[in-house]
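Supplementary Methods, section 5.1.

A reviewer requested that the exact input to the structure prediction be made available. We therefore reproduce it here, unchanged from the version used in the analyses.
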Amino acid sequence: MTTRALPWTSSPSVDVEALPVGKWWDAVSVPLVIGNRALTTLGRASGAVIQDETHGKMYWLIGVDTARSWHLRQVRVLTELADETTLLGVPPAHWGPERRTYWRLPLTPDRYLTDTWRLHDALDQAVLELLGPAPDGRQLCYRCQLPTDEPIPVAMEHTGSVAGVTIYVCPKHTSGHSRDLSAAFRTRPQERS
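The structure derived from this sequence is encoded token-by-token as follows.
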């Protein structure tokens, strides 16, 4: 039996190591809820995955320069930029779920990089299932009142007419929106009177 040597392996360090993306691999960052759905879709086709409980993210390792053209809501491609270095916190190879940052799917010779287009398709499906169709154009975030290119519909206000008002938040405000929305439903109809 021959063991394949990986072009890169996680170091046996004792803490998370900040490594540059674009050297051995690029990375795809997604919120845990989307990552969990995509991981279910990918199954055994997934490569190694880092899970970061502190920031609520999952990171897939993919080939360098294979996903620069992606445009998926809540999905970020981490790659080397011309004028700055992007770093990814990589845990030691032996860290498991007892740590806040760990290898959700361990890095092995058989599980290294994830096929870029399989990952894209799985993430696209997860985003559609969890966030619904993308709204047309920019919307204002209900919480910060700033325009966002990634509006997430969180509620539909019913005003008694055929058309209701959809309330959007930006990705930063997806958690905690429910407290503010109940107040919005109480005050908006009176404001229109």
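The helical segments are 32-42, 116-131, 177-192. These observations are discussed further in the main text.
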